[in-house]
Amino acid sequence: MKDAVIVDAVRTPIGKRNGSLSEIHPQDLSARVLTALVDRTGIDPSTVDDVVWGCVSQVGDQSSNIGRFAALAAGWPEHVPGQTINRACGSSQQALDSAAHAVMAGQCDVVVAGGVESMSRVPLGSARATGQPYGPAVQERYDGFAFNQGIGAELIAERWGFSRQRLDEYAASSHARAAAAIDRGLFDDHVVPIDVGGAEFRTDEGLRRGTSPEKLAGLKPAFTDDGVIHAGNSSQISDGAAALLITTSERARELGLTPIARYHSGAVSGADPITMLTGPIPATEKVLRRSGLSIDDIGAFEVNEAFAPVPLAWLADTGADPERLNPLGGAIAVGHPLGGSGAILMTRLLARMREQDLRYGLQTMCEGGGTANATIIERL
Description:
transferase; alpha+beta; Thiolase_CS; two-stranded antiparallel sheet
């Protein structure tokens, strides 16, 4: 079997809801990162076999196979196809996994993976605005439960015994770590500046410097009157896109490209769809078994911060070193543009591995419906 390597990874800065990126159509936002990949690597887009694009709310501005039209918006040749994947919050991580599978199987030579979400233009829940997303059989199986991620986060906090104080401490640390990473220029190499009305937008705008548990204590619970989950310890609603160039090491040599990492192992797993957000735990166990590595072999972990209890429960069950978990902050601090987040996390993981000269990194995403992806990469 062939290998799969990541040649480059780029992302937009993450825009807050109704912020700097809100006036840009998500096809055009996607095109910005596709164009950046071409500019940075010098690859001829006509050699791309497929564009595999994650997007969650595939209605309105994000309908009609946005992966295909993103490539057209970038001016790529019409023969370059595109597809759009929805594995909820893990959509663009699944895009990476699917791209790697394609080149490893020898069915493609060069694939671009990534994703986008403009939550300003296509609000969260738009795809469920009409109709009944859960049919009678599922409703019967789960006693009519409404499948609410916020309630799932509350259940996790209760099951693992996380107090509101603990969750708010974690949330504040996410902002502090993200601020430190921004200040030392750690994201500069992979963030594509975006022209917005003649001004250059280049820094994630959701960050709130000086966030503290004391400030967060004043926020009202979002899902239950006596709950511990609120806007400050949850991921932010955001806009953004990211893209990765995937090929084989052999094809990279032929094209004169220098890979930065090897796709080592991947796994996907399911868990209880009511609690919903615990999937990263079995997915991590599965990918470690598949890889032959131990938790201690991994130098950095990116566990998407959908809600603060998610990475904390993952940490408690896996026994990972807490200093290796989300060392550059996460979605609580800078945002979670659903379909783009998996690829965005990968750019963050690669940045940390480069900074610390780490060999292995692992990222995992909780996803609506109780599934989760886990991916291990090896730095080259």
